[in-house]
Amino acid sequence: MKALTTLLVANRGEIAVRVMRTAKAMGMKTVAVYSEADANAQHVREADQSVCIGPAPVTESYLQVDAILDAAAQTGADCIHPGYGFLSENQAFASECEARGIEFIGPPNAAIEVMGDKARAKRAMIEAGVPCVPGYQGDDQSVETLVAEATQMGMPVMVKAAAGGGGRGMRLVNDASELESAIDLAQSEAQNAFGSSELIIEKAVMRPRHVEIQVFADKAGNTVYLGERDCSIQRRHQKVVEEAPCPVMTPELREAMGQAAVDAAKAVDYVGAGTVEFLLDEAGEFYFLEMNTRLQVEHPVTEMVTGYDLVEWQIRVARGEALPAEQDDIELFGHAIEVRLYAEDPAAGFLPSTGQIKLFTQPQGEGVRVDAGVETGDEVTPFYDAMVAKIITYGETREDARMKMRSALQKTALFGPENNRDFLIDVMDKDEFIRGDATTAFIGDNYGEAFSPRAIDSSDLAVAAATQHVVAMETHHSQAASVNEELLDWVSMGRVTDTKCYEANGVPQEVTLIPLTIGEYEVSVGDKTHHVTVSEMGENDLSAEVDGLMQRYHYVSEAPASLYLASSDRSALLADSTRIPPEAEDAAGGGTIAAPMHGQLLSIDVETGARVSKGQRIAVLEAMKMQHELTAPGDGTVVDIAAVAGKQIGAGDLIMVLELEGLESEE
Length: 667
Known about the structure:
There is one protein chain. It contains 16 helices and 41 strands. The protein is α+β, with helices and mostly antiparallel strands. Helix content is 26%, strand content 33%. α4 runs antiparallel to α5 and α12 (398-410) packs antiparallel against α13 (421-429).
């Protein structure tokens, strides 16, 4: 058995933190690597030692093999855990670790090489007798050949990067006229994300379940499967909700899929943790999708229903130990659900969001687990994936786990970047999810391209006004000398009347607050009047009774104007316009094209003076490892181009100005 004492985690965020915690529990020293943008990140704070490996962009830091291996040499690390993403499935990195005598906590180079290339993997699986989706995985990568193969299959098809995963370099094509554009975008995205533009084409299996099998193998060739995970709820081919076991699984189907997954692993002499992903159609037929030669994001649900620590298993296997359990010993008990808390704006088509985290409250309780990579005060930057945390719940039944998840999300607050917390709560309440009937079409069917949160109602505004009033009153009281609390809310002419104006649901709303006694207010919002009592108020949480109904809230007040407020099912940022100086109006109106987020402007696809049509692609922005097409909001002409392709650009920065037809001049 090999002695391993110092573990370097070649990753960042929640997975780096999660791996370090198990390593520390096993008595190992931990080493973090970080980019300049992550100098004060949580994974750096948690590590025993840390080394900076370069600037913020991943190509200059987390994908720099030599810099990471130099950090290992500097700190005496004898093993490296790659986490997921970045270099986790990079055969060259694993080879370099081996060459330098460092244990790579992952499978052998040959397995990574085969399974890391979707084309080679599919050919290997066909040879091993594993059921596969019909498609093209040939060497000829010319656009003409790819288009021809896809056309011959018939629409719809999936265009997929042969290397990597996580939904990058993947496009669903429903119409043959969209093929060339989809291939172009997929190749570009795959090249930027994985360093390879190779694609495969597959016949699209519509409305399937995405079911994956967790496999594990030791160096002696013993291979087992640890049940399945249902990862069907996805948007843009990125998983959002995962659960174990799959709601429609039968013992017979589990055994068949488990054996197919073991066969797939044995076909490439696999070692360590791996996941074999399948599409499961409505008839109960399953097809090999890909194998991820690493630990999966959603591994916690498997840990919850088996009782095993999969990172501990990885380290033990790397040391040369036998698997901690044989197939007959592995049982599944209870049910677990995981959701991914993303810094994104569901109301704006789930676009990634960035910024400082003003408050992050993590739910606690029996059967609740949070794997997070951030804390209050940290920064979500545009350089990395939009996921900030995973929330996992466990129950004896699926309904127990669902109800615990619903409660956990209601107790969560993430203020600063836009995020999908309210969206996840809504998912938990959908009848289709409650029944366990969700397929990969779930988000499209239920939400389309965006999620519309519950409207901000008058009681929300009443609580917001009371909260801001109390915060301001207490601030003034703390700054005043020897003022009796009984005189709060009074001036020489009597009680203070506080008027605010919030923009709610796109409409200005005037709110008038009249103090009755300390902490008790009459609040008028339009033609509605509410009685609000603030009974308990902490630094970032409060209890307020509105018209006899008591509720807990999280809040962050940014004097003098802004308030973040979260109830059990609604998060909002409210600004009091009576305390905001007027801003200059947008001169170009609807013709202004601004960056919706921080990122790199990959291309500008029009020239000044060019005519554009509504929906036409005019630029491509890359942010958080995904490429986003910016399209013309209407027919018109390009008046001015203010940005430069190939450069980083900030959220809200002007890209170009269009003169749109049908918009009358105000001059």
